[in-house]
Design a protein that fits this description.
This protein has 115 residues and is mostly helical. Helices cover 71% and strands 0% of the residues. It has helices at residues 2-10, 15-26, 32-47, 59-68, 78-97, 100-114. Helix 2 packs antiparallel against helix 3 and helix 2 crosses helix 5 (78-97). The chain is elongated.
Length: 115
């Protein structure tokens, strides 16, 4: 995952993986107060239009999330997570598998196992 993340960073598109990981962590919150604060922070950072790490989702999903965070639950970002996962699966990950990052990773893994 670290190699994939470095690849995404080199393409200035690491916000998708970052968002997905933040959401996975968000789901582990058990305190409603912490969940509410964290939901607002995630929204401001990744969902809100023109946010610093804005992910590529449609307006309908953005509005659903805006409503969901009024009474947040572990599932309030699920739709956006599915969209982002699909984007990475169809676009970023196949490019990563053809990249020099991945080739270097395979080479280093091969050298490690040969030792």
């Amino acid at each position: 995952m670290k190699v994939f993340q470095a690849f995404l960073r080199s393409e200035f598109s690491d916000e998708n993986l970052e968002f997905w990981l933040v959401c996975e962590d968000f789901k582990t919150n058990r305190s409603s107060f912490r969940m509410s604060n964290r939901a607002r922070k995630i929204f401001k950072c990744y969902i809100q239009a023109e946010s610093p790490r804005e992910i590529n989702i449609d307006q309908k999903t953005r509005e659903i999330i805006r409503r969901n965070i009024q009474a947040p639950s572990p599932a309030c970002f699920d739709n956006a997570q599915k969209i982002v996962y699909s984007l990475m699966e169809r676009d970023s990950y196949p490019r990563f598998l053809k990249s020099d990052f991945y080739k270097a990773f395979l080479d280093s893994a091969s050298e490690t196992t040969q030792m």
